[in-house]
Design brief:
This protein is an alpha+beta fold. The protein is built from three helices and six strands. It is 31% helix and 20% strand.
Amino acid sequence: MGTAGKPIELTISPAAGGDPRHAIVVPLADEEPLYYHAWVADRRAYVHEKSGGRLGYLHVPDMQAPGWAQIHRDLRVEVAREGLVVDVRENRGGHTSQLVIEKLARRIVGWDLPRGMRPYSYPEDAPAAP
């Protein structure tokens, strides 16, 4: 209690005897982001499993700066699949901005093949499929 953001030392006693070990941790003030990321990871794994890895999964958390940044991080990875499931459930922003639709409507207009590297599309985050 009252230790969020402050380093504290934990003493961990092994179940099978032996010497206890010590660890320094910094508790979080709010664990909700951990639950959110676990929920998204679970949904993503479900979509990947049910589609045989053919579909990507993108959750739109909100339209604030952190949510927009998360969309970009996830989109860059998930657009490489044949299709994309876009989930707006539990959206804390109240609406899905037209900016998301503009991102998803982009089309690949070219490819870059740097010497000794893998090719990548231009723009990089354009979906390869529906």
